[in-house]
User: What shape does this take?
Amino acid sequence: MQDSVTLVVDVGNSHTVVGIFKGTKVVDYWRLTTRKETTSDEVMNKVGGLLGFSKIKPSEISYVGLSTVVPALERPWIKALDSLLKKHVQVVNAKNCMGLKIDYQNPSMAGADRLCNVLAMREEGFKNAIIVDMGTATTFDVLKDGAFAGGVIIPGINASLDALTEKAARLLPVTIEWPETVVADNTDDAIRAGLLYGFLAQLEFLIGKIKKEAGCEDMPVYATGGWGKMIARRTNLIDKYDPFLTLRGIRIVAVNGGDESASEDRDGDED
Assistant: This one.
């Protein structure tokens, strides 16, 4: 198990990340666009093609893990991975997270990616931590005393830009990059300043509030997700950026999880 090969898939609202671990080390990964109408045949064709570029052969893969926040895509991905790799697909859910205590009113409503983030931090030896996952939505996941204590969800950077330009007729989409100053002398940079510096201010405020509520001012803060690296460079409140944090959590469940109920219908049609 120590040097076993695990294929993991993190299906997000905008992007899907496919990764291969050898032991605990990422040896290959690919970032794909999430298509909500994807069929199992399309998934199988795409993943099969990607594996053709990898040094890892499909026959070497011992474990398969899947996390998805798009319910409609769970079944196609399970069916495709099962057919392609002939391995049980371990789907992350609130019941198979290695005994992780989930302090949520309805644990089944906690996003699988959020559980994976907390699980990965716990595996690293942390009992308290904040994970900021910056994707379509930005989530602040809190590990407190070894349990998932809940967190905060705010619109992601792209989602905020889309909402602004859709509702304001005279404001057009802009490239997302840091302007030189907060006070801008043109509309495009004014949007960029509000979007990025506003997001950064929101992030720093929420981190401070979470630490205060938790009574733990020295909680480490990790960032992950597509926008994580860009934002982490601009603040000293984020201790580390780890692009593979969610994948690490999926791997833990894939290798050690025991709940097979999520894939019992994998041979059915997507419809």
